[in-house]
């Protein structure tokens, strides 16, 4: 009877093991995706805060400087960054229409600068300007969830210009 019980336990283990491996891999992928989501959200927030750095005597750093900051923030994630796509209307932005959908391991940045074309404005007169920065990342999972999931991070900042 001992050999039959051992054989039954082996069969049950063989059935349960792939399910357990899939669950553990799924949890690891969700954790990895969450880490990338936090990184993209932080980069968007940093960029919006940075580009909103306008005062009564300066006209802000502009989009090129903002993109350099995003590239530096996300250097540990990827170097494939398409930055920026300036969108002429307030969010929500539409993938494929307002910005190019990111491919695997690619980051696409979309920006709305309110009434300013390049998020600079002019020093005077001061007015309220809205800046929206969205960072989209084409996340490649291990095909547990079908591959190529887009993770977005976004930030909105209103600044006095």
In short:
The protein is α+β, with helices and mostly antiparallel strands and 161 residues long.
How is this structure best described in words?
It is a single chain. By secondary structure, this protein is of the alpha+beta class. 39% of the residues lie in helices and 22% in strands. It has helices spanning 2-51, 62-73; strands spanning 81-86, 107-112, 128-139, 149-160. Strands 1-2-3-4 form a four-stranded mixed beta sheet. Helix 1 runs antiparallel to helix 2. The chain is elongated. The mean pLDDT is 80.
Our count of domains comes out at 1
What value does the Rg take, in angstroms? 23 Å
* Major β-sheet strand ordering: 1-2-3-4
The helix/strand series, from N terminus to C terminus, equals HHEEEE
Mean pLDDT: 80
The number of helices is: 2
Q: Into which percentage range does the β-strand content fall?
A: 15-25%
Please give the share of residues in helix. 25-40%
Tell me about the largest β-sheet: 4 strands, mixed
Low-confidence stretches: none
Give the termini separation.
83 Å
Structural class: alpha+beta
Q: What overall form do the CA principal axes indicate?
A: elongated
Write down how many β-strands occur, each being a DSSP E stretch of 2 or more residues: 4
């Amino acid at each position: 009877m001992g050999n039959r019980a051992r054989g039954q336990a082996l069969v049950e283990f063989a059935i349960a093991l792939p399910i357990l491996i899939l669950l553990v891999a799924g949890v690891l992928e969700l954790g990895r995706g969450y880490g990338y989501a936090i990184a993209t959200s932080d980069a968007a927030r940093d960029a919006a805060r940075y580009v909103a750095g306008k005062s009564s005597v300066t006209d802000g750093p502009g989009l090129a400087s903002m993109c350099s900051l995003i590239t530096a923030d996300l250097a540990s994630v990827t170097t494939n960054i398409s930055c920026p796509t300036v969108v002429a209307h307030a969010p929500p932005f539409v993938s494929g229409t307002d910005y190019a959908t990111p491919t695997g391991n690619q980051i696409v940045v979309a920006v709305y600068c309110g009434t300013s074309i390049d998020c600079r404005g002019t020093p005077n007169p001061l007015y309220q300007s809205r800046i929206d920065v969205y960072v989209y990342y084409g996340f490649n999972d291990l095909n547990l969830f079908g591959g190529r999931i887009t993770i977005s991070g976004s930030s909105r900042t209103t600044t006095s210009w």
